[in-house]
Specification:
Bound molecules: ligand LJ64HWYM
Number of helices: 20
Helix content: 40-55%
Largest sheet: 6 strands, mixed
CATH class of one domain: Alpha Beta
Radius of gyration: 21 Å
Low-confidence stretches: none
CATH topology of one domain: Rossmann fold
């Protein structure tokens, strides 16, 4: 298994180099040269496995022997041993035709833990094996930050810097990131939006001299390892639903911001999992909904919403999908990404739009609809949705067809978004870990959202790594 760039200007590399490269050096995203195809018999076999066993099987296709089997198994056990549910990502039935895939049983109560517990351990493994210096740079709209920090804190030889948009994440999200008192962790609250942070880190990664000097590594879903670990739970959910229902295919409704989570579902489908519709649920920041409905990918006005983790205009993983939409043509992908840079939009032709609509359905959820859905499901089922999951459920209601069965991805625990839940007049019980955050001091720096300022901060934080250069 080798990896190539969506823009075609990176020599083929293996799995560990892919993890270390993060953003491809030509500015594109790394993808597997060929996607493994699983037969029906293989799927049958996989359906009998525990989450950890399944993760091992799926991940092995992509690691392709670069990590010895027993060590990969150990990495996976370590990563999911921190989850509060023995099933890791349990499936809960809410309606006859709708299940919720609970992805929030990890240490920071968000779906990001599923991949970032694994990636944190993987980075630590690579650091130990190869002596590579791991200085992580990431951007968050709320959930990735805490999850990434939790995934690597206390691990020898790893430092991390996370950018979050100042005042635009929920209080719990902010506390989860900023109450970690560890000299290897730097939290920068930027005066701007998540898109500013994501643009800045991508520009810094593209400055290869700076990236190499400070050994910068990616933790966001630009890193293919993130997508890979997230693919596992689509398989797991499918197998759990298939155990109790006779299904030929299964829809998934996915709260979507950076397009990484839903792209993992797209990858599972390409591997042969019988996925029906992949439903993109957005909030008022609906660039993806507009693209799927109209074929034009163009950022709109930024909105602060009840689901802050999805307050994203430019979705990182969109380029990975574009590459497949364009028949795996790196020259066509580069041309469209160049056009996006110069004109600020991408328009696909009618035939391509038909393909997009065969791959995805979409629904943009407005604030009121998000809160009403939380209220309605709480009243009807006593199940409390967080505002992101609520967007997913509202999108299932809008897009799931008759006789179709859907799994909605529950991306976070409602306790992370008390501001929104309180608006629904619902009182919730907070997990002890979250309650405890409110008594802790915070460590963060509020900084201007400029490349110069962020580089200055990184030089300070990662300075000692210069001595470690191999
Ligand atoms: N929604 C994310 C934004 C970053 O996305 P990622 O999947 O690329 O890490 C967040 O909560 O931070």
């Amino acid at each position: 298994m080798k990896y190539i760039s969506t823009r075609g200007n990176v020599n083929k590399i293996g799995f560990i180099d892919t993890v270390l490269m993060g953003l491809a050096t030509d500015g594109g995203l790394l993808v597997p040269e060929q996607i493994p195809q699983l037969s029906e018999e293989k799927l049958q076999e996989l359906s009998k496995l525990s989450y950890q066993e399944l993760a091992f099987e799926i991940i092995s296709y992509y690691v392709d022997g670069e990590i010895p089997e027993n060590e990969l198994k150990e990495l996976i056990q370590q990563s999911y041993g921190t989850f509060r549910s023995s099933e890791v990502t349990p499936v809960v039935k809410l309606k006859d035709d709708m299940y919720v895939l609970e992805l929030f049983h990890g240490p920071t109560f968000a779906f990001k833990d599923v991949a970032l517990q694994f990636l944190g351990n993987l980075y630590s493994y690579i650091a130990k094996k190869t002596g590579e210096t791991i200085n992580i740079l990431g951007a968050t709209s709320g959930d990735t930050g805490a999850s990434a920090i939790e995934g690597v804190r206390g691990k020898e030889g790893i430092r991390i810097c996370i950018l979050h948009p100042h005042g635009r994440v929920s209080k719990v999200q902010e506390l989860q990131m900023t109450t970690v008192h560890d000299e290897s962790v730097l939290n920068l609250a930027i005066e701007g939006t998540f898109d500013d942070g994501q643009r800045i880190i991508k520009e810094i990664f593209a400055d290869l001299e700076f990236k190499n000097k400070y050994h910068l590594r990616a933790i966001n879903s630009i890193n293919f390892a993130r997508i890979l670990a997230q693919t596992v739970y689509y398989f797991y959910a499918y197998f759990q639903v298939a155990k109790e229902k006779d299904i030929n295919s299964l829809n998934f409704s996915v709260p979507t911001g950076n397009f990484g989570d839903i792209f993992a579902g797209y990858l599972a489908k390409k591997m042969g999992l019988p996925v029906g519709k992949l439903i993109v649920a957005t909030n008022e920041n609906n660039i993806l909904e507009r693209f799927i409905k109209e074929g034009v990918y163009q950022p709109g006005e930024f909105h602060s919403t009840y689901s802050p983790s999805m307050d994203i205009q430019v979705a990182s993983n969109f380029e990975r999908y574009l590459y497949y939409l364009l028949g795996e043509s790196s020259s066509a992908t580069s041309a469209l990404m160049d056009q996006f840079k110069s004109e600020g939009k991408i328009t696909v032709n009618e035939e391509q739009l038909r393909q997009v609509q065969a791959d995805f359905a979409a629904h943009g959820v407005q604030g009121e609809e998000c809160l009403n859905t939380i209220g309605k499901y709480y009243e009807d089922t006593k199940y409390l949705l967080d505002p992101h999951t609520s967007c997913g459920v509202a999108a299932y209601e809008a897009c799931n067809g008759q006789d179709e069965v859907c799994v909605t991805l529950s991306t976070a625990h409602p306790a992370k978004f008390n501001e929104s839940i309180e608006k629904c007049d619902i009182e919730q019980n907070y997990p002890e870990e979250i309650k405890a955050l409110f008594d802790k001091p915070q460590y963060l720096e509020v900084v201007e959202a400029s490349n110069e300022e962020i580089c200055r901060q990184l030089e300070k934080h990662f300075r000692s790594s210069l001595a470690d250069v191999k």
